[in-house]
Amino acid sequence: MKSSWRARVAMCGLLVWASSAAASEPVQFYGLDLPQEIAGSRRGKVHDFEKTQRGLGYGAEYVRPDWTTNIYIYDRQKTSLPDDVQSDAIRGELEEAKGDVRRSAKYSRVELKREFLVRDPRGKARVSCAMFDVTTKDPARNDTFVCLSSWRHKFVKFRLSTQPRADSESAARAYLETWIRLLWPS
After folding, report:
1. Pairing between strand 141-151 and 58-64?
2. DSSP secondary structure letters along 60-116
3. Residue 135 in domain
4. Is the pLDDT of residue 20 over 50?
5. Side-chain half-sphere of 36: how many Cα atoms within 13 Å?
6. Is the predicted pLDDT of residue 8 greater than 80, yes or no?
7. Domain range holding 35?
8. Residue 78 falls within a domain, yes or no?
9. Which of 22-36, 56-70, 136-150 has the lowest mean pLDDT?
């Protein structure tokens, strides 16, 4: 009986170790190394959407206290995308993403608060964002951001959520500026 208990404890320890090791392994999609940690967020689950449908790409979750961020890199089977967040392709994809937020079954209320651009240190607009005030069916309120860009002919979408707070937009901008420095180093 004791050896069976020890074996189970050892197996649980092995599973915990394997799980944490998998979360810390290097992850790369389309030449982008997704960091284990960025701007205080730790990388969590990673998803390969490409397995089930070509063009949907890959996603990763990043978590920090009071914030959850998902980043998606995909191409929708397009061979080329402009490096301009104000292009028709990127604006169209942002409209699609905004529609996804509005249609989400987990929200009882969705209000678009504003749209804004996030620029790189040289002043080039790199990310186009929409900020929403949403109420979940719990009901809990969240500030949710959906942001779009293109990088190496791929769409890059960010979905950030936090509890409502006065500085959520500036915090989201600062977080996205960290990603901008990673994606487009000076």
Report:
1. unpaired
2. EEEEETTEEEEEEEE-TT-S---S-TTSHHHHHHHHHHHHHHHH-TTEEEEEEEEEE
3. yes
4. no
5. 7
6. no
7. 26-183
8. yes
9. 22-36
Q: Using CA atoms, how far apart are residues 130 and 86, in angstroms rounded to an integer?
A: 13
pTM for the structure as a whole? 0.85
How many domains does the chain divide into? 1
In a domain, 9, yes or no: no
pLDDT digit string (tens) for 30-41?
A: 999 999 999 999
Residue 6 has pLDDT above 60, yes or no: no
pLDDT at residue 139 in the model: 83
The CATH number covering residue 120 comes to 3.40.1000
Q: What is the pLDDT of residue 105?
A: 86
Q: What is the dihedral of CA 62, 64, 67, 68, to 10 degrees?
A: 20
Which is nearest to 129 in space by CA: 161, 164, 105, 104?
161
Assigned domain for 6 exists: no
Q: How far is CA 4 from CA 10, 15, 18, 57, 74, in A?
A: 10, 16, 21, 43, 47
